[in-house]
Amino acid sequence: MQIDYPLVQPHGEIRQLLPDFFYLPGTARVAPAAAVNRNMGIIRCGDELVLVNPVRLRPALEEKLEDLGRIRHAVRLGYFHGCDDLYYRDRYNLTFWSQPHSDHYPAPAADALLREGGECPVPGGYFFEFSHGRHPEAALLVPACGGLLITCDALQYWDSWRGCNWCGKNLLRLAGFHRGMQVAPTWCARMTPAGANPRRWLREDFERLLELPFLHFIAAHGSFCADRAHEEVAAAVERRFFPG
C-alpha cells in the first residue's frame, strides 16, 4: 500500500552545534501564508543516530544524514508535532519513542514509551515529562558538554526570526513571542484547562525542570542557546510564573 507522506518542506543544511550533536533547521506552515522555523535535533551515539523532533529531508540531505551514522531512533517530544514520524519509521525501520496518548498524529504507534526517568535511547540521557498539561509534552536532557536540554514547544529561545516568513514572524509576535528565552504563550494556553490559571497550573513542572543540570538548549522552534541556557530558562520561568 502506498502512503502519501507529507511533502518535504523548505529546510537548510545539517549543522554541528556540539561534538556529537547536530541540528537541521526546517520550516512548518502554521497558516496558509505563514511559515515558522522547525528544528530537528540529531544526536550521535557512537555509530548510531537519535533524531529528536524529526523533520523530513530532501534526498541529498538524507544521504548526508546517513553519512553521520545509522539512524536507529526517533523521538517525539511534543503532542502537536509528528507529521514526519511515520516517514522515518517506515524508511529506516527505527525505534520510535513517544509518550502515551501523544496521538495528535496517531501514526506511527510507539515502539518504546517515553516516560520520565525511564529507558532512554541516549546513553546517560534523561526524559522529563510536563505532567500538568492537557496533552503530553516532554523534554530530553543529553548529558554531554555540561548538559543539553531539548524541548519541543514548551520552552523556546529566539535570537532572530530566521526561518520564518513575514507572515510567520508577525503571527508569532501577535501571539506574544519575543526574542530571547520564553515559556511559549500559545503552548501555555493550549495546555491549561478552561477556567484554570496557567501561571499556577503549569508552574510546578517548570520548577522541576530547573532542577536538571544543563548549559545548552534547543527547541523544535527558535534558535540554539549555548553556555548560559539554565540561567536564561530560570529567568523565563520567573517572568512567566512569578511576575513582579
Describe it.
The chain is of the alpha/beta class and 244 residues long. It has a single domain, classed as Metallo-beta-lactamase, Chain A (4-Layer Sandwich), CATH 3.60.15.10. It is 24% helix and 27% strand. The strands form three sheets. The chain has a seven-stranded mixed beta sheet. A four-stranded mixed beta sheet has the order 8-9-10-13, with no helix packed on it. It has a two-stranded antiparallel ribbon with strand order 11-12. Helix 1 (59-68) links the parallel strand 4 and strand 5. The protein is globular, with a radius of gyration of 17 Å. The model has no long low-confidence stretch (mean pLDDT 95). InterPro entries: RibonucZ/Hydroxyglut_hydro.
Feature tags:
244 residues; alpha/beta; Metallo-beta-lactamase, Chain A; 7-stranded mixed β-sheet; 4-stranded mixed β-sheet; 7 helices; RibonucZ/Hydroxyglut_hydro
Q: Share of helix among residues?
A: 10-25%
Supply the number of structural domains.
Answer: 1
Gyration radius, in Å? 17 Å
CATH architectural group: 4-Layer Sandwich
Shape: globular
What is the mean pLDDT?
A: 95
Biggest sheet, open or closed, and with what strands and sense?
7 strands, mixed
The name CATH uses for the topology is Metallo-beta-lactamase, Chain A
Oligomer classification: single chain
Find the structural class using helix and strand composition: alpha/beta
Q: What strand line-up does the widest sheet have?
A: 1-2-3-4-5-6-7
Query: What is the level 1 CATH name?
Result: Alpha Beta
Low-confidence stretches: none
Annotation, overall tally of beta strands: 13
Query: Hey, roughly how much beta strand do the residues contain?
Result: 25-35%
What is the CATH homologous superfamily assignment?
Answer: Ribonuclease Z/Hydroxyacylglutathione hydrolase-like
Q: What letter string, H or E per element, gives the SSE order? A: EEEEHEHEEEEEEHEHHHEH
